[in-house]
Write a structure and sequence with these properties.
The protein is globular, with a radius of gyration of 18 Å. About 35% of the residues lie in helices and about 25% in strands. The chain is α/β, with parallel strands linked by helices and about 240 residues long. Bound molecules: adenosine-5'-diphosphate and magnesium ion. The site of magnesium ion (MG) has 3 residues, from helix 1.
Length: about 240
């Protein structure tokens, strides 16, 4: 099973942001979408999430065509670069949000939130407000929140981009560790080749709306498909 992107094309006016993109992302894998700014990574992620529509082509998630489903029916968790957190709600309430709008029973919510806060080592901060957390802790909260509804797919758009280098490195390790623990199919966008190499099982290199190469970090490093990949990885 997998996320299957088939012939996706997306235009903004005359500009072609995605040009007939096809790629298959296996279930349970941690995949990086890597490439320079403006290449179409976020557009692809948004279309997978259902936050944007393609002009043509399809996305299937685990064999079900997702293109026609609204975002809330796609079973997708999303983490953005800029913390999408509720400032007036405690950490626990932020994590519980997706479960509460789904009207889950209260004891179930409490247990799940407790588990998740443990997973990201924030259990002692459950009553704090997001403003009382560090940037790294806040993104860990965002990860816990995205995982709360047990999504089939976790999508992250430059999740660590806004943080300083040390915290970013720490969060890469967190993402890798969380993934190894919950095995959710994960796709994260980055323009940082080192980040992709360090964290991902497989990397999809995207440039000017096209897939340049798909491969493991070793494959990309040993056998770059073309000059673009070679020079981008060499930066
Ligand atoms: P990346 O995430 O790889 O940096 P994006 O997917 O955000 O790239 O953008 C790809 C291209 O599409 C960019 O040139 C961007 O300016 C353009 N683009 C993205 N969203 C819109 C939009 N809503 N309207 C017009 N152009 C857009
Ligand atoms: Mg982007």
């Amino acid at each position: 099973m997998s996320i299957d992107v088939n012939g996706l094309t997306k235009r903004f006016g005359d500009f072609v942001a995605l040009d007939d993109v096809s790629v298959s992302l296996p279930t349970g894998q941690l995949t990086a979408l890597l490439g320079p700014s403006g290449g179409g990574k976020s557009t692809l992620l948004r279309i997978i999430a259902g936050l944007d529509k393609a002009d043509s082509g399809t996305v299937s998630i685990e064999g079900t065509e997702a293109t026609k489903l609204p975002p809330q029916k796609r079973n997708v968790g999303f983490v953005f670069q800029h913390y999408a957190v509720f400032k007036h709600m405690s950490v626990a309430k932020n994590v519980a949000f997706g479960l509460e709008i789904r009207k889950k029973p209260k004891p179930e919510i409490e247990q799940r939130v407790d588990e998740l806060l443990r997973l990201v080592h924030l259990q002692q901060f459950s009553h704090r407000l997001p403003s009382q957390l560090s940037g790294g802790q806040r993104q860990r909260m965002a990860l816990a929140r995205a995982l709360a509804v047990e999504p089939k797919v976790l999508l992250l758009d430059e999740p660590f981009g806004a943080l300083d280098a040390k915290v970013r490195k720490e969060l890469r390790e967190w993402l890798r560790r969380l993934h190894d623990e919950v095995h959710v199919t994960t796709v994260f966008v980055t323009h940082d080749q080192e980040e992709a190499m360090e964290v991902a099982d497989e990397i999809v290199v995207i440039n000017e709306g096209r897939v340049e190469q798909v491969g493991t970090p070793d494959e990309l490093y040993d056998r770059p498909a073309n000059d673009f990949v070679m020079s981008f990885l060499g930066e």
